[in-house]
Please model this.
Amino acid sequence: MTAQEAQWLKKIIAKEELHVLFQPIVNASQQAVYGYEALIRGPRTSPLHSPLRLFEVATQAGKLVELDILCRRLAIYRFAELKLPGLLFLNVMPLTIVERDFREGLTLGFIRDSGLPPARVVIELTEHVPIHDYELMRQAVDHYRTMGFQVALYAKRRVSDEQGVAAAYVDLDNFKAFNDAYGYARGDHIIISLSRLLQAQVDNVGGFIGHIGGDDFMMLLPLDHWESVCGQILRSFEVMAPGFYEDADRLRGGIQIENRQNSITFSPLLACRLR
Model:
């Protein structure tokens, strides 16, 4: 963290100079938008425009919880102001949900002020931030669900023992190159998007999805549906993948990145692989 970045962070938080964007979330089976994920950007002219760097600097400065709560408040108010339909998906750091927000009920206050029903807000918790007090985490999740929020964790469903099942391992080609080029925050967004796609397809047929780690997932599908589900997943991700890239890389069909031998290599766009 440089002195300039520290000053920018202080200014951004004090003056709330954050930009909220909303990315549509599509139900692949119905080809319809059922909600929006809130995304945050710093000022375009600042060194903290990238959310990856913004949150890295906030972590180093001890301002992570403060920044996370500010992002949540601005996202809720902006979503209500735009009168967007469907659900609002908020990426919430578990560190925040088990600390200040859990004690003070900040998110519920933001929701009430905005006029949104809590049932239209989905609090998303990822597995990439470690939580050591699991009992407190469980209490926090129960607390928010009691207040009417949906809390998104990786869901699991049991396939009936009476059905024949097919197992499928899911991962992404070219994911490491994407992470190296765009950073872990953008990579996490892809994993969350992939998990939603898989869950939507698996739920339709009463299957099971498990997150192994990173970009690796496992599905158990009824034999009668495995082929159609796998085909839909591959087609849907092929449509989604270009949207994860900046314009220049999307037009190029991939990214150019320096390897360990200090030479430039080309990595194609992300692709979903099932086996």
Notes: Confidence is low (pLDDT under 50) at residues 155-162. Residues 199 and 209 are 7 Å apart (CA to CA). The first strand starts at residue 19 and ends at 27.
